[in-house]
Amino acid sequence: MAFLHFFVLLVLSSLGVDAAVFTLQNRCQTTIWPAIQPNGGQPVLMQGGLELRPQESKNVTTPERWAGRFWARTGCTFDVNGAGTCTTGDCGSGLHCRGAGGEPPASLAEFTLDSPLDYYDVSLVDGYNMPISIFPYDNASVCSSVRCDADLNLHCPANLIVRGESGETVACKSACTAYHSPEYCCTGQFQNPDTCHPSEYSQYFKQGCPTSYSYAFDDQTSTFTCRNADYLIIFC
């Protein structure tokens, strides 16, 4: 019995007692390729990328105190070795991003776990490519969901549109991504909340997804906390 107790403690310590499970669910009508990028010094999960067919779900387990982001890639073509590219969210290294970030615009689900609370948000600061929502579960009855289930590609301002090969709108840039100006990117003389304010473009994102980050200092209505929860991330 003593040995069994020691073995259980050893397993828990190796996994991290506060490890979280992320359930990635594809509610789109087409296949998507979720990508995962850890923050610096954090482990890469699932080699940084995977395939999700329509209505398919997969679980990703993180160690305690993990931090990073999830997004969906669309319009991908990969060969049997995983080499290839995507129309949106491409990370430049094939199916498995292996820690690389995605090419904006892409809708992001961002997490910092066990600090000591979990902090999470949906960010459209770099633009939008598809609906994405976060639903905490397990020990999370008082934790808020973050829903960005609007189709922001539908009425994307003309100067922010990213088009696919057939001319269809596949993503919507943020003003920062489109213009790279300090005013829109909250850099230079605009790098504080007193000087960087919402633009007409960020307000378009905010109206469609009120609980998502629409620009760099959109913290008050866009950052959420929970404790000891697992998370469902829904695409579409």
Automatic annotation (TrEMBL):
Q: Which UniProt keywords apply?
A: Disulfide bond, Signal
> How far does the signal peptide extend, from start to end residue?
1-19
Q: Which domain of life is it from?
A: Eukaryota
Any Pfam family: Thaumatin
Give the matching InterPro entries: Osmotin/thaumatin-like_sf, Thaumatin, Thaumatin_CS
What family name appears in the similarity comment? Belongs to the thaumatin family.
- Provide the protein name: Thaumatin-like protein
Organism name: Deinandra increscens subsp. villosa
What does the organism's lineage look like at the top? Eukaryota, Viridiplantae, Streptophyta, Embryophyta, Tracheophyta
